[in-house]
Amino acid sequence: MPRLIIFLTLHAAQVLGYDEAMSWVQSGRWSISSPNMLTIAFFPIEKVSLRLRSDGRFADEDFTITPQVFTSNYAHRILVRRHPGNHCEESVMWWTPEMTDFLAITQSSYQALGRLRSECLRKIDAMTWNLSNRAYNIISRNPRADWAALEALISNMRHGVLRLKHSPYTFKEVKMDVAQTQRLYLDALAMCDYVEDKWANKLQSVGPVLMPPRSEYMGAWTSDPSVVQKLHHAGIPVYFVQDRSIVTNGNTVWVEGGPWRRDNLVVTAELGVVSQIITSMQRHHSSINMATSMVTSLHWMAQNRRSRGSHVRTKVPKTGLSIPSVRDKWSEITGDYIPHTVKYWAEALRAVDRNQRQGTVAPKHYTGYRFPDPGMLVFSAARREKNLFNWLLVRDANIHRLMNDLDPSGHAPRGFSNEVWRMLLGVEFTDRDKVGASLRDLSLGEMPSTRSSSHAERRQAAIAIFGQPPDSHNYTEVQWRGHFIGWDTFFKHDPALVQEIMWDIHQYSFQYDLISLDHYMRGDDWRRDARAQQCLISKILGRETCLVVEDLPAANSGIASEIDENRFEVYRALEQLMACWPSSSDIIDGGRNTDSYCATVVRIFCQAFYKAAAHSAKDAASGNGEARNVPIQKIDHVTH
Questions:
Q1: Which of 123, 237, 462, 528 qualifies as a FRET site for 435, CA 20 to 30 Å off?
Q2: Hey, what's the torsion of the CAs at 15, 17, 20, 21, to 10 degrees?
Q3: Range of the domain at 392
Q4: Residues 173, 257 within the same domain
Q5: H/E element holding 411?
Q6: pLDDT tens digit string along 472-510?
Q7: What pTM was estimated for this model as a whole?
Q8: 174 and 211 share a domain?
């Protein structure tokens, strides 16, 4: 049994053996001592309960706040940094958002949503980016090693930052995601330190203690004397936990420290139940989600110099939308309000063989729409105003839903039928609604009853998609990229306004449809290595990650890139993605740096999409297993 010695007088240069104690406390039946720390950090020993606290962290059970028990599986966590003090730049990794950092989305049917706006986020972005570069440099120096854990930490960390930059949240969710991103950063930083400084070798060294403890690290606690010796020798803060019954005072000079309790800065208040809009994101099939549809092809916005200048126009363009009275879903939609099509795609869509279909029917949640069908939004001149208006009221809620449906492990976001989206967006905006919007300060009992004929259907559709009914729908204007658009004015503005909205819908319909289709085709690959699939799809899209909805890009990227070398590389990535799809067996001969090669890849892609989503011979023959609109390019942002 090790002796426990407490020195009454300690000098800075004094080094104790692992079986000696520089400090000691008692807690219940436990004796906790440390051979290299003057104070004993508070940490849970017996039964613990891992629960989110009001700051988004886990209080005593959070390894970024409190030392945890040492385990060889997570040995690097002994190097997790302690809070350096608020004067340090790194303190942003312990920052908790306040309501002043939360910008509410005012023009939304779901009023609890907002976005994080803080200078701290910019610092977190820069620090995580630098750590990401450091990690991939480590990986490149030894590519044969197993870096799965480090790659996962870095990937999830950057995914968290991009979510915080671009996605809508409730305030509780903001705190949760900030804390999780900070936790991933500190975990990845510790792992990089552990590898680069060769701590695995240091922990195996034997001999006398040569260095004072590294108090900037969290350290660990243990009941194993050999671990105490190992960490003490390496200069890592360590806390030795023993049952009081086996510790005798003998010749020991017992000097007990002060009361053992947690730091007052550790938040223990419960977070509470997270809002319904996040807890019910994993939706069951709705009884109204009966219709089917096919995966949307990508749309990009094309360079359009006419978009420069003010939004407001005195005249609606005569050309409008080139749409027949009866919509042919296999025909490309053109006109002033639709950005130009990326080459290859319109022709490939027309070349689809509608007689080809696979025997197994794809589940509806794979083949449904994650964003509304763009053609449905603008096809009817009588309905397109209310479709666009109502879409912008729920756009942020839909992005919020997708962010919670889709996680880095590869779960595919659920799609919904065209009919469900039509129910949600096709609500009339009447004079009674305008009265309701002007009286929003009244109590609920005083609010006028509006949309009596279609409100029930819209409510049902909203619950099916978002998990809860809208908080309000009484608005006279909506917001797009910081600018307000009044009811019945969409087509009185510069065409670039509608072009931007249409690009946004096409782009992200394609993005999430592609993720869902690949998940359906290669589910085992997603379960085995989701990150590899994400990287491939991100390359096709020309984005850092395929898991978030970002702002409009400043230039064409991905498959719409205007740089030949980049575009050919992207189409090679698309071919690689489809290589293991069971519905794509075509072999491409010849070079892979030509326009004809890109056109062939697109043709295979469109055919594979159709085969996956044609639900029956009747659907295939009639064209009901519809193809969605062809890709378009980006336009220059409108100067307001």
A1: 462
A2: 40
A3: 293-622
A4: no
A5: none
A6: 878 899 999 989 999 999 999 899 999 999 999 999 999
A7: 0.81
A8: no
